[in-house]
Amino acid sequence: MTYTIIPQSFVQSPRGHFLAVLHNPLYLACRQFFLVAGSQELITTLYIGFLGLIFSSYFVYLAEKDVVRADGKPGDFTSYADALWWGVITVTTIGYGDAVPQTWMGKIVASCFSVFAISFFALPALSLAEIGKEGARIRDEEGGGGGGYQPKRGYRMSTSPDELKTEVDC
User: Which residues cross the membrane (predicted)?
Assistant: First the structure.
């Protein structure tokens, strides 16, 4: 019994993007993961991302909880809630700067977390954009074209300038 690490669809995609696989495998892997697999994997991705947020915030808290500044005041991470606040602000790329790791261990954990979490939380946005593009492509191929919102029922205005009429589509 053999197991493949890379699925055949990554190596030879149905649209013939063999060179795209060589140039950008992460894009195609994410596309394959979200478009083919469905919404269950999207939920799993968010779940893993939140677990990463919880654990990374905890590790930063462990590294920074005993920090005392030069002026005698405690560091920025006096409680786990402070570390979670820092984690959420880091993941959302807001970065207020109100809490910053001071120790080298805290900075290493924060750096690894930032690279992991920001890229990991960006994957669902990529997948939603791809799903929208795929839906528009399918609609255009089926003759729905024209772009924009087109209701299935109700009133629809004709787009030709010659005849502006309202038709009922029920």
Answer: 42-63, 75-96, 108-129
